[in-house]
Amino acid sequence: MKIKLYKDCNSMTETIIESIDDSILKSKEYYFVLGLATGSTPLSLYKHMRNTNWDASKMYTFNLDEYADLPYNHPQSYEHYMEENLFTYKQFKKSYFPSEKNYRNYDVMLRLFNIDIQILGIGTNGHIAFNEPGTPKDSLTRKVELTENTRKDNSRFFDSMDDVPTHAYTMGIESIMEAKQIYLLAKGKHKKDILEKACYGEVTSDIPASYLQEHKNVKVFYCD
Ligand code: PGA
Predict the structure, then answer these.
(1) Mean of pLDDT over the chain
(2) What's the CA-to-centroid distance between 46 and ligand 1, angstroms?
């Protein structure tokens, strides 16, 4: 996996939008399926997406993960995040999130819809979605316990560490690897080291993002 380096995060976002645009144009299917991530990294991507001329009524979205035990309207729930940052502006045909109700069937849905492009961030510990270090390659959508490292990283969005949920629902590695294309995004110097390990180091469960080396269609974007 070769990392495309950008000095300017805005031009990185524009390149990503153009690339998705291109895939939508080339797609022979009636519907286009986007896999979406949350966190701070894709925020500018969603801002740009709002202004595209994509026909959202012909697009489905699947989010990677969701906290357990947060009500839907909690400001830190990922569903709320997506509403606030994208769905209010683009009305997709239908959007899915893993939850207590559907997580056992999420992979069936994913296979049925077959994600065209999966957007991914990377955690400072190498996680993708909530697949923490140690996650096996054949993992599917499931309920997981969050590591202290991840809860600490995410505590900046909550009033206190105690408010950060302890569990979440997440797509597994195998679920993610089934996407036709994967765009792995990282922003900031604090992500550079883990991104390089994931892309150029050994494929290991210690760095779940390193599994992506085994996918045949991954693009990696990094900006400072
Ligand atoms: P971030 O999170 O975009 O907020 O850095 C990425 C992740 O933990 O996957």
Answers:
(1) 96
(2) 14
